[in-house]
């Protein structure tokens, strides 16, 4: 019984969070150096595996889809972009209504400086996330066009191989990585800063849940299936995203969660989950737009102009699709338009990054959980196209 309790993914990750936070309050500088080494090594292993996971699941899934798969890919990209832009518009409307009423003042106390790490071992991935994604799409499409059973069989074997790596290496390493992350945040003093910005963060988290509810309601209406049969399995993925602050690092757990759903076809989810983990960042985009309004009010005394913010949102949706699935990926990828479109100076961009980092885990958890709703929509789209194709062949 005890073994089963501690083998539960959610329990293990919650324990990792608690242990990490408590350790950060009491750990000496010498001990923190060791934690930084562990965090760096675990992160290197996890992010080395990410491109392999993308290729192993996306390429064979596309090859198995057959039919007019290019239409499915375009539909998935359009869905991710519309969800991100919709979430951003929702964050903007909430920001205009509530930020002037919050009266939040910026934190003056500096963070505690992290010690220099003992050593830094770089394990660069074999390719970037976006390169792996594009390569997967091309391999999958090529397999369909040449109708090669040998390549399809090889892709399926590679998927089985990578799945073993996920189960035997990535999943056991994740709790250690989560604990080290929260130990670092606690040591720096970022955990105590959450209290100062608590009203802003609570509003953002509530917005995440509202947007997730909207996505799953939309998925239920479009697919005519019970979307709770997807959402209820996402607990471990949500907790993993909270700890890793990365959609890419949560990929292995998300795939395990969606496979338990009886209303989603595995050949669709194996394609959409790795894809959406890198292009669907609704929670991060919603958060960034809301925090852009917060920083503008705090530093410049007013909210951004509506026309300026709308232009920023349209462009941010594009940047979100191409943002890396790593901690802070969305805000870092969009700093160019934060400066050029919104006119933020160095102080504004620094504050935006700092506040965004305080809740980055919750934005990532929203991203990864929203992928389930979009997968259900894509699944219904594929079934309808497949049925329509069969009807044409029959006639």
Order of helices and strands: HHHHHHHHHHHHHHHHH
Q: Ends: how far apart? A: 58 Å
Q: What is the radius of gyration?
A: 21 Å
Mean pLDDT: 80
Tell me the structural class: mainly alpha
DSSP strand tally: 0
Quickly count the helices: 17
What overall form do the CA principal axes indicate? globular
Which strand-content bin applies to the residues?
A: under 5%
Largest sheet: none
Which regions are unreliable across 5 or more consecutive residues at pLDDT < 50?
1-7
The percent of residues in helical segments reads: over 70%
What's the layout of helices and strands?
Layout: H1 2-7, H2 9-26, H3 29-65, H4 69-102, H5 129-146, H6 149-188, H7 190-196, H8 198-223, H9 228-231, H10 235-244, H11 251-259, H12 266-279, H13 282-300, H14 306-322, H15 329-333, H16 335-340, H17 346-394
Question: Would you write up a description of this structure?
Answer:
- The structure is a single chain.
- It is globular and about 60 Å long.
- Helix 4 (69-102) runs antiparallel to helix 17, helix 8 (198-223) runs parallel beside helix 17 and helix 10 (235-244) packs antiparallel against helix 17 (346-394).
- The protein is an all-alpha fold.
- Residues 1-7 have low confidence and may be disordered.
- It is 81% helix and 0% strand.
- The N and C termini lie far apart (58 Å).
- The protein has 17 helices and no strands.
